[in-house]
Amino acid sequence: xxxxxxxxxxxxxxxxxxxxxxxxxxxxxxxxxxxxxxxxxxxxxxxxxxxxxxxxxxxxx
Length: 61
Description:
Blueprint: H1 9-15, H2 19-25, H3 41-48, H4 52-59
């Protein structure tokens, strides 16, 4: 499964629960909060000041 920047965090966690570890390593401690369920990876990276390309590379490993 390819993970894309438009994928919602909630969808990602449901389809690939092991991605939580990677998200946490990048400083996204809010993966369990209700708002993150409707937030795309691109939006979350922007809010947290993360490099989207690096995040996507790590998630698609």
